Fold this sequence. Notes:
Layout: E1 5-11, E2 28-29, E3 32-33, H1 34-43, E4 48-55, H2 60-67, E5 76-77, H3 82-94, E6 100-105, H4 113-123, E7 128-134, E8 139-143, E9 145-150, E10 156-158, E11 162-165, H5 166-175, H6 183-189, E12 195-198, H7 209-221, E13 224-236, E14 240-243, E15 246-249, E16 253-254, H8 262-275, H9 280-283, H10 297-309, E17 312-322, H11 332-343, E18 350-355, H12 361-364, E19 368-379
Parallel strand pairs: 1-4, 1-6, 4-5, 7-12, 17-18
Antiparallel strand pairs: 2-3, 6-11, 7-10, 7-11, 8-9, 13-16, 13-19, 14-15, 17-19
The structure holds magnesium ion.
Amino acid sequence: MEQKISGLIVAAGRGMRAGGGIPKQYRVIAGKTVLRHAAEALLAHPAIMDLQIVIHRDDMDLYRDATKGLPVMPVVFGGKTRSDSVLTGLKALEKSKPDTVLIHDAARPLLPIQVIDNLLDALQGNKAAVPCLKVVDALWRGDKQVEKPENRDNLWRAQTPQGFDFKTILNAHQLATQPADDDVALARQMGIKVAITTGSEQNFKITTVADFARAEKELTNMDIRTGNGFDVHAFGAGEFVTLCGVQIPHSNGLSGHSDADVAMHAVTDAIFGALCEGDIGQWFPPNDDQWKGANSAIFLEKAVQRVAERGFTLNHIDCTIICEMPKIGPHAAAMRAKMAEITGLTLDRISVKATTSERLGFTGRGEGIAAMATTTLVKS
Ligand code: MG
């Protein structure tokens, strides 16, 4: 039977150490609160069915703003200690009868989906599991001066979410007689074995002012952009048209200042669009003689170079060519290969397709060829 998995975020802390005058989980990084980033990371996992958040009762307004539009369960208020807050959250989840619960810190906004996958794998055979990273730096004990090295074998840095069989952790919290730092510590006190799974450096906890800058940088780096491009060239004298760098025999050529490669122009414009750097006409003015008869590969190469200079990676190209004739299909593979050569993309990230306009309009009357393109860039 399918396991029911719930998320629980404990966001009741008053942590002001990181500055800003409000608890750190309500500070905004990259346009969203830290809490919202953490909640969205859990909700993004297809196996997590519902999400319970525990907050401090003074933070209701902040919470409402932070979670606007998110499919979360009705909020509950935490207690004096972290353990009290977790128990309140677990009790609130009880009625939805989860098999498994993942308990996460609100202050870890950059939780990769892989960390959740690792955890869920480990929970197949364990009642509890925790994502960890091996300690790789040398460890020294001392006070102002180094006193002695510590052995770092089998030492781990613990992260969240910490995953548990729901009934087991609920029981442990209900029976616990002494406070614990976190749920793994509590589980251990109750004699529950906790498996170690692979965490991620990206999944760091925001504690200091510098951590905000780091999180902002990492989240801003997840900049994904889509650009579109459109171009038209009229038929003129000639015996072939050039489309995406491939010469296709035809009863006409295409007229234009350069080689009139309408498809490559659309792709190039889509890239400039994603970068918000104007259009092909601004980069290569049609009244500039040096571009007369130019191979349009030069334009695409320039756009690809700008992508790299701006710190992006070109991720995908989709180009649609609109004409009655010539037939594009037999040449699409060669066009994709040509653009792969220019952009460095693999073929599975380059699409060239064609359509007619059902004999309507200028393309339908065979007066020229139109092309449109969409490109995706990812900040690298
Ligand atoms: Mg053009």
